[in-house]
Every structure is written in structure tokens, then in C-alpha cells.
Amino acid sequence: MPPYLLALRLGGRRVLVVGGGRVAQRRVPALLAAGAEVVLVAPEVTPSLEDLAAGDGNLTWLRRPYRKGDCDGAWLVQAVTDDAKVNAAVAAEAEASRIWCVRADDADASAAWTPASGRVGETTVGVVAGGDPRRAAGIRDAVVDGLRDATLEARHSRAKPVGVALVGGGPGDPGLITVRGRQLLAQADVVVTDRLAPRELLDELPADVQVVDAAKIPYGRTVTQERINDYLVEHVRQGRFVVRLKGGDPFVFGRGAEEVLHCAKHGIPVTVVPGITSAVAVPSAVGIPVTHRGVTQEFHVVSAHVPPGDPASTVDWPALGRSRGTLILLMAVERMTLIAETLMRYGRSSDMPVAVVQDGTLPGQRALTATLGTVAEEMAAAGVRPPAIVVVGDVVNVAREIDMMRADLGRDP
Fold first, then answer.
1. CA distance 229 to 262
2. How far is CA 351 from CA 271, 283, 335, 344, 392, in A?
3. Average of per-residue pLDDT across 111-123
4. Is residue 60 part of a domain?
5. Is 246 a catalytic residue?
6. pLDDT tens per residue, range 188-245
7. What distance in Å separates the CA atoms of residue 19 and residue 264, rounded to the nearest whole number?
8. Where a domain ends, among 237, 261, 276?
9. Residue 329 within any structural domain of the chain
10. Is residue 396 domain-shared with residue 286, that is, in the same domain?
11. Number of domains observed in the structure of the chain
12. Same domain (yes/no): 272, 313
């Protein structure tokens, strides 16, 4: 017979979990997220569960084996030990007390099944497939993916968002936009997009979505920030849901706060969706960690659109020169000669390794490595153009070490 699916509201209700292994490690966090008062019975638990027990007041760990009577007062029981006899005993006690019990080791003997579940926003999906967990998980994933990229939500949702969504599109690769960002993008009536936003995503939009190009091209055509602000207000007042799609994170050198302030001034609600900033993602894409144990415990992200020495600059270049931390320079291509000279003047070695990554995370990504003393010359010789990220610091050598290890593994013995 098919099961009868039910969504349990477990807030403040006792749930017993017997067993502290990998299955419990998956299920306990979900139960806690649902607001359950979880009692975990197990002589030993995984490190993650031990950490949860130490920090979450809704989780009580009884460090002992299961005893008859543990089911008393429970609304739901999970028997998830590695011992079939223990699981059977727990299930029998729960059955006698008319408490629903899930046995992780035997679907046929289990009074209840835990569905393969997933959550996207306020929507929770649960799938059972005749007790076949792999098939259930595959179907769940397909439905969740459709909700995450809004192909299902956009088709069937009755409630369209209102106002403006300020969405960080990530460093360029369309696969690196956040789930929430992609969902809102698929529901937009108007998309006001930056030059550095993931352009491939625009091709997925329905034909009736209006795309406004708000590109700011370095040393070329540009749309003023004031005009962009006006676009947002104008379209919302015409009853449209507007997505302001930006590259990276909207609050990291993206003028996102200016747009939120402008919308607030005109009484327009704004949803801010953070994005993966290129300052960290692009170095990662070429194997450079911005911090590394034993190398550096700090990193500094600097906008170099205003050069050192300019009265409008708020960057403390002398402090950056003295620092041993990693420097991540954005918008530095045209000013690298002056930047390198300034850093060396204030203490950075001319031999300090530097990496430059152009079009990071995109198919045309390319990188070069140099030293602080040679980087400006090598960038010019290679024809480096924006957008490019410059990384200054010894972490560049970590990427070189990784590359050498991979090369060694690839050689014939």
C-alpha cells in the first residue's frame, strides 16, 4: 500500500533519535531546524553531533545505550543505530506506545519512512519511492533543481515579488550565481544588468523580459549611477518587478548601497541577494588561497580605481606596504606601475610574488605570475586588460606548489 504523506510541525515537540552515527548526523540537524526538542541516545556520536550537543539547547545527548522507556513522551522516534536488534527493540516500544518510528536499516519493517527532502525558500519537497532511497533522492533533486533555477516556480507561482531585487551575480561563471539570485532573476519583468554580470543567464530569460544595459566600460561608454537609480524607480512604479543584476557582490565595490538608499528614499522595497565576490573567487579559480596557515592570517581587498597619492584615495598604502597580508587589487590594471612602486617604497619586497588573473572563472580566463618588481612590465607585454584581479603575497607560491605536485603525479614513474 502507498504511504500517506504528512508534513510534521515539530516545534517544541520531543523527538527521540537512537544512534549517533552517519544517519543520525544527517537527520538531527534537520529535526533541529524544524524546531524539535531532540533527545539523542548513543554511547558515542560523530564529532559534528558532539559539537551540536555542546552548542544547541534543543539537543540533549544521553551518553549511553538505548533503554526501554526512552520512547516515553516522544512524538516521533528515529532508530538509526548499526545494530538491527536495537533498532527492532526501539521500533517495538514505539509501536506499543503508538508513536511513529522510522527504522533506518529496514524499510519494510519501518512504520514510517523519511522522505528524500529538500527546501527552496518556503517550499519543502518530500519524495518517497517505494522505500528506494536512491530513486527518491534522484527525483527530489530534479524537483529541487527546478525550484532553485525557478523553471518550476516561474511557471506556477501566483505571487510575483515586488520592488527591486539587488542580485550579486558572482565572478562571471553563470554557475556561480546563488540559488536565490537565479530564482529571482527568472521571475523578473525587467533586468538592469552590469557589464560584469553573468551574461549567459540573460539568454535564459523569457522573450518578454526587458533587459536594460547599464554597463560601465572602463575608459569607454558608461551609464551614470544616477540614471541607473532612476531606471529602478521608474520600472517599479510601472508595476514591474526589477532585478538589478551585478557582477560579484553588490556591496563589494558595486555601489549596491547607493541603489538601496535611492530606492528607500522613494519607498521602494529592496531584496538584497549577496553574491560571490571576485576578490576571493578569482584567486581560488587559479588555485590561490587568500589565506594559508603558516603564510598569512589576513587579506586586504583594495579598489585601485583611485591611484595612490590621489587626494580622493582613502586607502592607507603605507600600511599595506608594511603589512604581510595578502593584497587583492581590483581595478588596478592601468595603475599597476604606480601601485607596485608605492608598495615597494613602503616595505614590500620587489621579489614578492604576484599573480594576475584576467576574466576569472570565464572560458577565456588566463593568468600570469611575476614579482612586484616586474609585474607592471609583464602585464603590459601580455596585454592584460580589465577585468583582472591582482594578488600580491606569498600565497601565490602555494598555487605554484599545487601545480608542481600535480605535474609530478602526472609523470610516468
1. 7
2. 45, 20, 19, 10, 11
3. 85
4. yes
5. no
6. 999 999 888 998 888 888 889 999 988 765 555 678 899 999 999 999 999 999 999 9
7. 51
8. 276
9. yes
10. yes
11. 3
12. no
Three-state DSSP state, 193: strand
Predicted confidence at residue 98, as pLDDT, reads: 97
Distances (CA, A) of 12 to 29, 80, 168: 15, 22, 36
| CATH number of the domain encompassing residue 343 | 3.30.950.10
Measure the CA–CA gap between 78 and 104, rounded to whole angstroms: 8
Instruction: Assess if residue 376 is contained within a domain.
Output: yes
Q: Compute the average pLDDT of residues 154-158.
A: 51
pTM of the predicted protein model: 0.72
Question: Residue 298 sits in which domain range?
Answer: 280-403
Asked if the model's pLDDT at residue 82 lies above 80, the reply is yes
Reading the block at residue 219, the C-alpha cell is 575608459
Query: Residue 348: inside a domain, yes or no?
Result: yes
Q: How far apart are CA 395 and CA 391, in angstroms?
A: 9
94 is written with which cell numbers? 514505539
Name the catalytic one among 149, 194, 249, 359: 194
- Please give the torsion angle defined by the CA atoms of residues 54, 57, 59 and 64, in that order, rounded to the nearest 10 degrees: 60
Angstrom distance (rounded) from CA 273 to CA 49: 31
Which of 276, 310, 336 marks a domain boundary?
A: 276
Q: Is 265 annotated as catalytic?
A: no
Q: What is the CATH number of the domain that holds 87?
A: 3.40.50.720
What does 130-181 look like in DSSP terms, one character per residue? Answer: TT-HHHHHHHHHHHHHHHHTTTTHHHH-S----SEEEEE-BSS-GGGS-HHH
Give yes or no: residues 264 and 240 share one domain.
Answer: yes
Here the CATH number for the domain that contains residue 237 is 3.40.1010.10
Quickly tell me which residue has 606569498 as its cell. 394
Mean pLDDT of 354-360: 96
Choice among 83, 141, 216, 394 that is catalytic = 216
